[in-house]
TrEMBL record:
The keyword NADP does not apply. The lineage of its organism: Eukaryota, Metazoa, Chordata, Cephalochordata, Leptocardii. The chain crosses the membrane at residues 156-179. GO terms for cellular component: late endosome membrane; lysosomal membrane; plasma membrane. It comes from Branchiostoma belcheri. Disulfide bonds join C110-C147. It holds the Pfam family Lamp2-like_luminal. Residues 1-136 form the Lysosome-associated membrane glycoprotein 2-like luminal domain. Keywords: Disulfide bond, Endosome, Glycoprotein, Lysosome, Membrane, Signal, Transmembrane, Transmembrane helix. PROSITE patterns: LAMP_3 (PS51407). This is Lysosome-associated membrane glycoprotein 1-like.
Length: 194
């Protein structure tokens, strides 16, 4: 997957800035996996940045999902220009996530660009995600469960709802014209008294 972070920070002169960085492909990885919890730590930029993604089995082992993101970083001036606190150690985490959900025995795949707000100052952008936290056999992903499955169902509901609403509006307009025309016809049959 491709990961990018946007982090709000304080700049000199009481201004605000956004530090933007990508997780590089040459990040050093470590982690562990057991039956219900799995995590991977990516260390990059000379060890000044560490990102831990923790996955968990849920619903009695029927699904897995990304449950927490923990980021430790240094406010290096190259990423955080004019920072008030150069080289200060920072951290951001969210332990209440429900991202990248897939059925047990499957992998999660999403080709769409997605944005996730992790904290008030940290946003995670993802692209081309394909993960499987449990049950990987011979280094190969299991059948993928695409993120578009949920959105296509939502789109179908939106189309059906929109079509139904359109039909109701057309019926209301036709009824209005029929009733209005009927009143005119009745009035036309009378003679005005002067």
């Amino acid at each position: 997957m491709a990961l990018q972070f946007d982090i709000a920070y304080a700049k000199l002169g009481h201004r605000h800035g956004i530090g933007v960085f990508n997780v590089p492909t040459d990040a050093v990885t470590s982690g562990f996996c057991d039956k219900t919890v799995s995590n991977i730590t990516l260390s990059f930029y000379g060890g000044t940045f560490d990102l831990t993604l923790s996955f968990q089995m849920v619903d009695g082992g029927r699904f897995f999902h990304l449950s927490s993101v923990d980021l430790h970083y240094v406010e290096v001036p190259g990423i955080f220009p004019q920072t008030e606190t150069p080289n200060a150690k920072r951290s951001a985490s969210n332990v209440t996530l429900d991202m990248f959900r897939a059925s047990s025995g499957k992998s999660y795949r999403c080709s769409e660009d997605r944005d996730f707000v992790l904290t008030t100052s940290v946003t995670l952008h993802t692209r081309l995600v394909h993960v499987q936290a449990f049950g990987v056999n011979k280094g190969q992903f299991s059948t993928a469960q695409d993120c578009g499955m949920r959105s296509s169902n939502n789109e179908l509901v939106a189309v059906v709802t929109g079509g139904s609403l359109g039909g109701v509006i057309i019926i209301a307009i036709v009824t209005y014209f029929v009733c209005t025309r009927g009143r005119r016809t009745t009035r036309d049959g009378y003679t005005a008294i002067n």
